[in-house]
Every structure is written in C-alpha cells, then in structure tokens.
User: Fold this.
Amino acid sequence: MIKAKEILDSNKKPTIKVELKTDWGSFAAAAPSGVSTGFYEAVEMRDEDGGVKKAIENIEKIIAPALEREKLDDQKKIDKILIDLDGTKNKARLGANAILAVSIAVCRAIAANKKITLYQYIAQLSEVGAPKVLPKPSFNMIEGGKHAQNGLAFQEFMVVPQKDLFKENLAIGIKIYQKLGEILKNKFGAVKLSAEGAYAPKIETSFGAIDLILQASQGENIRMAIDAAGAKAEDYSELVAKYPILSVEDPFGEEDFENFAQLKNKIGDSSLIFGDDLTVSNIERIKLAEEKQACNGLILKPNQIGTVTETIEAAKLAKSYGWKIMVANRAGETEDSFIADLAVGIGADFIKSGAPYPAERMAKYNRLLDIEKTL
Ligand code: PGA
Ligand code: ZN
Assistant:
C-alpha cells in the first residue's frame, strides 16, 4: 500500500513524503527540490500556490493502484511502469517529485526483501562490483548566486579534503567550516547561513571568497570545487592557475556547449568540468555533451530525471565516457539520505551534500559514516 503526504523541505517549501507498506516492512522516501533548477530537468509538479496536492493525488489515485498487484522484486520493472504511466518525455503528467519519491521507496523495499543494504542493491543494479571505497565529500563553505543574496556570482565554494577515509574527510570538513565561521565573524560580524548551510558573507569577488576558505584550510590537504551555476564571473584559466581547483561545475549557461568545450580543451587535463544544468542527469543531454566534448564530469541528481533506474543509467553512460561523477543534494532537502547509498552503490567519485552542519545535510554524511563501518 502506498500513501503520500506533504512535509516541508529545508526551505520550508511543501514537498512529498511517500510511505510504502509491504508484508516485510514499511519504507519511506521524500523528494528534494532545487532552487537554481536547470531548464531541461524533469518537471516538478507544483500547484498554483506552490503546494504539492496534485502530485500527492497523482501518487494515491494513479500510481498506487497501478503498483497494487505488482511484485516488488525488480527496480527496472517498477520504474518502467512509472515511466509508462506518466507517458511524457519529462514527467510532466505525474511529476518527477511524485515519481521519484515512489521509486526510492520501492528501491528500499526491494533491497530489504532481498536482505541486502540499499547501496548493495544499487551496486547490483549498476553492475559494478561490491563497493570498496566511499566517494570523496565536497563540503559547501560559502554560497552565493541564487542560493544567497550577497552579490557573489558563483553559487558554491566547496572544500574537498584529500584523505582516504570518509571519516577523516568529514572531520576535516567540520574543522574548516568552524574555522571559517570564526574568521568571517571577526571580519564581518554576524554572518548569515545560506540554503545549504554554508556562509553567505558580503564578499565582492570569488577570489576574495576563496582566499578566506584557504585561510581556514591552512595545514590541511584540500582541493576546491566551484559551482558557478552558469555565472561566468572570472577567467577560469586564471582561477585554476592561482588556486588548488579540483573542479568547476556549470562554468557557462546550460546551452553553451561551445564555451564548455573550449574550457575543457584549455584546463580539462588538470581540472574537472562538471555538467549540472547542462546535463540534468539525462542520458540524451549527457550524450550531447560528450559529442561536443563539453565536460568530463557529471553532477548526478535523481530528481532531475525522476526514477532510480534512469539515474543509474545516467551514471553508467557518463562512466563509459570516462567522466567522473559527483552525486549531489538539492538546495531544498529533507532528512532522506538516499543519495548517500546511491553514491556508494554506483561507485561515484564524489558527493556534495552542502555544509557539514544542517541536519538535512548531515543525514547524508552520517549515513556515509555508517556505510564506511560496514565496508
Ligand atoms: P540547486 O543547487 O539544488 O538549487 O539546483 C545545487 C546545484 O546547483 O548544484
Ligand atoms: Zn550545480
């Protein structure tokens, strides 16, 4: 039996939580919600007033009856039913938020029925061997762009500690986050936190933000990840020459394959160029990006595409091109930690789940701590 209800995400916006009852237990899942969403993402179903009543109705009146008699033993089969029920190319009829919450709850139920963990089931579906290492976490330290109203053009300035163990990387991330908080407090007085729990100080330039983060990171072996979210504010060649930049995400707009390709040509040997809004976890867009040689990394977000199966397909395709993968949270999150299991299960290289502070971000980092103990 499938039930759906409205809960609030970390931005206090309504979102969907699904509860799936089976003979072997109850399984829940919730849909996250982006703020700087890509044009080509699957459709998030919203009522005129921003609510999710219609999406919930779609789950209870259309999806639930269709899955009523289905055996929950194969993710691909269930996701195919969901995709066919919707019938559109972009989940516009039922809503990617409605479909994804059901798809994730089903994934948990199938894993439990098989008596394996969620990440183990995802590893089976991904046809990769048993996971051995965890993805490296990329911790959001300073936010700008649409995530903050502080005038900073880039959306996320992240720190990627370079230890082998996730536990050690988390400890370093927390230490730097706290240190940066002190530095910013001394410099600016009280500093607000932003959508993903990172600081939102009024700093003029990206270079200024990076300098402060590096000051807080002194003595630690880290690299930095930037999400420009399409706002080209600096000369990227200068940026990577000057700073320990591991990756640049969405350095240009979501249509700008040409500039992506030029940049990859220039800095792609030493840095990763991630597509996020460019590729929207969609195999057609990923194929196009590879054709145009636009990037060498994929940001993977299940709610950009709407089912677990399609998310895994996107990861497989990107891997077949030799791209690196960073699984990512959304600006509007819940306590659902699915992306932690997803990142481990598909063998992702990185995961970003915001600052190592708010509970909805820590839910993912804590799940990774648990998983690391079992490997
Ligand atoms: P969003 O931001 O959830 O607002 O899209 C995250 C990102 O761009 O990576
Ligand atoms: Zn992004």
